[in-house]
Amino acid sequence: MERCTTREEFCQHVSGLAERLAEEIWTTVVATTSEGADTWLRARGGAWLRGVLGAALTARADRLGTPGPCGSCGGPVGFRQHRSARVHTVLPGRDVETTVVYGQCVQCRAGCRPLFGELGTDAEGFTPALQEMATLAGVIEPYDAASTELLGRLAGVAVSREKIQHLVGAAGTRAVATPPMPMASAPTSVDPLTVAIDGGMIFVDGRWQEAKLGCVYDTADRVVSRTRSTLTARQVVAVRGTPEALGTQLWPRADALGATQRLVVVLGDGAPWIWNLAAELFPRRVEILDWYHVDEHVSAVARALYGEGTEKTRAWRQSQLDRLWTDEVDQVIEALRFLGPHQRAAAKRTAVEDLSRYLTTNRDRLRYQTFREAGYAIGSGAVESAVGHVIQQRMKRTGMHWRSAGADAMLALRSVYRSTGAWDRFWTDRPKAA
């Protein structure tokens, strides 16, 4: 790599590179054919950019020299030589050839390349930007597809699946230990905070295990249209383990959004651990049983009583849902208690009795008209969507299985990825290279 030690030398060098590129563009695109011009220029332009960056880094390395004491023993560092080096970047083609100043401690003889320290490269020369890109690719897609499709085909950079897996593991460990917190809500906010809680199964260490997930969002961040509601912002956390483990991760996020000063609306599917956790975390709360789970239970009993797809099935199901929609839960329970003993088939009798107990246990969580009039969400679509994005789309593909450390790292990073603004905060706050 040619060393440009002055501004004039650097500008002249870059101008020369630009003139040669312009000539190639004229010859290849203008005078010959425009077919595939964008693909050609992406490759050739990437090479040009890498050449310019290489010259800039070489000049920067000369300016840095060998400043500061030794990072190992604190002794003085002296200049040893100029060395050729390769930096792995996000530019198409990835590798940038440069010349760096190599220094050596006069006491412990440890070597250093100050430019790499300033760039923040890892031990293999990957820049922070490429580390982030490769990590994100591995969070979005399985490692093979992340390497060949997202990075290789789309970004034009080569990163092995092993490197991606290593980066994901390291970043995931940090995300588990120090997850990014949401920006605090205004202390004057009086709108309820919504916390939706659910679980999903992952195959870890040779067996199916439940990952528990929470989704926190402001009422103001829920935009309702005629056909659906959409969240403009959310915070997601997912852990493998006990409800207490989820609570340890969920509470700081809810607290940052003002959970101690605001009413908290808790949405769940009826699992007792959800309500127990909500009672521990949120003293001032409203508990709502997810409407769609209630619909599933009612529909299952309708099919058990009157068969699949019959008019009686449809009518009975709709009648119960209409009552529940208008706060007539006690009437539904009373009707079920009357209906159950009149069923000759044991399976039908059991189905009716189970639904009666389910609704009785959750009676106070079924006041859907009251909840709607108060402006509360009655469906846990946000957390269902989060379960799909965090777990299903990445961690439950065909034949996929995980070990504990990898599963925990991926859950943490997928949670960061699906939480509004969290990914940028996570990488901005990363530890700087020594």
Features:
single chain; 10 strands; alpha+beta; 434 residues
- Oligomeric state as shown: single chain
**CATH architectural arrangement of the largest domain:** 2-Layer Sandwich
Number of domains: 3
Quick one: how many beta strands?
10
Largest sheet: 5 strands, mixed
Number of helices: 16
Could you estimate the helical fraction of the residues in percent?
Answer: 40-55%
> Which structural class best describes the helix and strand composition?
alpha+beta
> First CA to last CA: what distance?
26 Å
Q: What's the SSE pattern?
A: HHEEEHHHHEEEEEHEHEHHHHHHHH
Question: What's the mean pLDDT score?
Answer: 91
Q: What global shape is seen?
A: elongated
Q: Roughly what fraction of the amino acids lie in strands?
A: 15-25%
CATH topology of the largest domain: Nucleotidyltransferase, domain 5
Compute the gyration radius: what is it?
30 Å
Strand order, main sheet: write it out: 8-5-4-9-10
CATH class category name of the largest domain:
Alpha Beta
Low-confidence stretches: none
Walk me through what this model shows.
The chain has about 425 residues and is α+β, with helices and mostly antiparallel strands. It contains 16 helices and ten strands. It has helices spanning about 5-30, 35-65, 115-120, 130-140, 145-155, 160-175, 245-255, 270-280, 290-305, 310-325, 330-340, 345-360, 370-375, 380-395, 405-420, 420-430, and strands at about 75-90, 95-105, 110, 195-205, 205-220, 220-225, 230, 235-240, 265-270, 285-290. The strands form three sheets. A five-stranded mixed sheet has the order 8-5-4-9-10. Helix 9 packs antiparallel against helix 10 (about 310-325) and helix 14 packs across helix 15. The radius of gyration is 30 Å and the shape is elongated. The two termini are about 25 Å apart.
